[in-house]
Design brief:
Layout: H1 2-5, H2 13-36, H3 45-58, H4 60-63, H5 80-89, H6 111-123, H7 133-136, H8 143-156, H9 158-161, E1 168-169, E2 175-176, H10 184-193, H11 208-223, H12 236-265
Helix pairs in contact: 3-6, 5-6, 5-10, 8-11, 10-11
Length: 266
């Protein structure tokens, strides 16, 4: 404190320092932001036009004629091709009826239609593009990287998706879906676009190599047949309780048996 209030310092020093700090933050943000919001691959203009036509038929009732948003649905400016691809290919969009959550359902669009819709949404503003395989593939990772993926998953995802990615309930009738059998591309897109209750995990926070580690970890986990009775991966509480009841119970039985045998032998 003495340092800040010292008379020797010029009166303008503190405001100047503040302005300097703000400028520095701005510069830092400018340097980092473009990396996180990869400028969208807008595709060719014909694809955008096709996407726009399709959008105005099926999506505009909620998202507006130009994706600007209405009281029924959010603006799609800047959500990126990745968000559109994720939402439409998982059947979440077009949303059938307003509910607690737009659920995963059968998607009725062809790949070309999805690509056109994504190109149109991408043309609205820069946002995460549809990833290429080297951004999300979990193949060929070392055991160390897989272990890191497990750690990242437990730290960032398991609170909602459960320890084994089996999914779980959230407040207000919402839920985090099971991640069993979900592709790496979808995991990348969900992390970068944060659908509904899920937070966005930007490439600044978790770079692509971390996404790949998580994908690899989930693939290995779900490829393994679980041994013994599955408790739905409910985590340490349920498993600990079972260990307690069966384990301690068993030890008690053995103790009783030994005592009875010992009594007979005497
Ligand atoms: C019945 C209304 C409705 C229709 C029709 C609909 N949407 Fe949506 N859409 C919503 C709502 C509501 C949300 C926000 C969901 C949430 O975050 O809880 C949303 C979210 C989205 C998002 C995610 C935005 C983000 O911030 O990541 C995308 C992308 C999207 N919609 C695309 C589409 C496309 C493409 C179509 C047409 C194929 C479509 N939607 C049709 C209501 C609708
Ligand atoms: C705060 C809770 C929360 C956290 C933390 C969270 N998610 Fe989610 N996640 C959700 C919810 C809710 C949905 C469903 C959104 C929807 O239906 O649109 C979801 C959906 C997903 C999906 C889409 C699955 C599908 O049905 O296609 C994937 C993949 C996913 N999350 C992966 C992750 C990963 C990986 C992490 C950690 C890096 C993570 N999530 C962290 C809540 C969370």
């Amino acid at each position: 404190m003495r340092f800040l209030t010292a008379k020797r310092r010029h009166r303008a020093a503190r405001p100047a320092l503040l302005v300097l700090a703000l400028l520095l933050m701005g510069a830092l943000y400018a340097a980092v932001a473009p990396a996180a919001r990869v400028s969208a691959d807008t595709g060719n203009s014909q694809q955008v036009a096709e996407g726009k036509a399709l959008f105005q038929v099926t999506c505009s009732s909620c998202h507006g004629m130009n994706g600007e948003g209405t009281s029924q649905g959010p603006s799609l400016v800047g959500v990126g091709a990745a968000a559109a691809n994720f939402q439409v290919s998982t059947g979440r969009m077009p949303m059938a009826n307003p509910g607690a959550q737009a659920p995963r359902k059968q998607n009725t669009y062809t790949d070309e239609e999805i690509a056109a819709l994504a190109a149109f949404v991408a043309s609205l503003g820069p946002g995460p593009a549809i990833p290429t395989e080297d951004q999300y593939s979990g193949e060929g990772l070392s055991p160390d990287e897989l272990a890191k993926g497990g750690e990242l998953f437990r730290t960032n995802c398991s609170a909602c998706h459960n320890f084994e990615g089996a999914g779980g309930a959230l407040p207000n009738g919402k839920y985090a879906p099971s991640l069993v059998g979900v592709s790496g591309q979808r995991i990348w897109e969900a992390m970068r676009t944060g659908p509904q209750q899920m937070p966005v995990f930007s490439s600044g926070a978790l770079p692509d190599e971390d996404v790949r580690a998580i994908v690899g970890y989930l693939d290995t986990l779900h490829a393994q047949p679980s041994s013994g009775i599955a408790f739905g991966g409910l985590g340490p509480v349920a498993e600990g309780l079972f260990a307690w009841i069966i384990g301690i119970g068993g030890i008690c039985l053995i103790a009783v048996w030994i005592a009875a045998k010992g009594a007979r032998a005497r």
